[in-house]
Amino acid sequence: MKPFSAAESAQVQIAPAAAGIPLGSVVLTLEGALPVEFLTPGDRVITRDTGMAILRSVDVSEAECDVVFVGAAALGPSRPDSNSLLAATQKLLVRDMNYRPTTAQDQAFFTARELVNGSSVRETGRQKLKLFKLNFDSSHVVYVNGLELAFAPIECPLKTAA
Fold it and tell me: If we measure between CA atoms, which residue out of 67, 105, 84 comes closest to residue 148?
């Protein structure tokens, strides 16, 4: 596989709302762990919900957005497996009750901003990020840097826990 080229596969555009995986983040695929910028349509991405999903397209955007730093193991053992940056509006699945805001559910989706605790998960202010949004035929939870990030088609958005 060769590195993803925005000029070849997608147009870089300014996103109205920040969503996606920051440049350099590692995504689990059936070919191994790959930097997000190496992904191309047709790649088989490992998902929590179905085991594997075919990547249909990748949208690349540059966004100045609120960013959240998530320290290594801040959300459980190897979650994430390294320090990670996320757009504050990125949704992720949190399954360990010791690391999530209070909810009656065993697992729930939260935005990165909702997980801020001031130490291991903290806001870093506005930054310009190159984001890669993964598009599938249906909603999926994808493994990125040891985190479980939610991706949904516009017509089928995931609900955030109350």
Answer: 84
Distance CA 70, CA 37 (A): 20
CB 84 within 8 A of CB 90: no
**Percent with pLDDT over 70 in the chain:** 78
Render pLDDT for 71-120 as a digit per residue (tens, 0 to 9): 999 888 878 999 999 999 999 998 876 655 665 667 888 899 999 999 99
**Is 44 in a helix, a strand, or coil?**
strand
CA atoms of 60 and 36, how far apart (whole Å): 10
Q: How far apart are CA 50 and CA 58, in angstroms?
A: 19
For the chain, what is the radius of gyration of the CA atoms? 15
The model's pTM is: 0.80
Q: 69, 122 in Cβ contact below 8 A?
A: yes
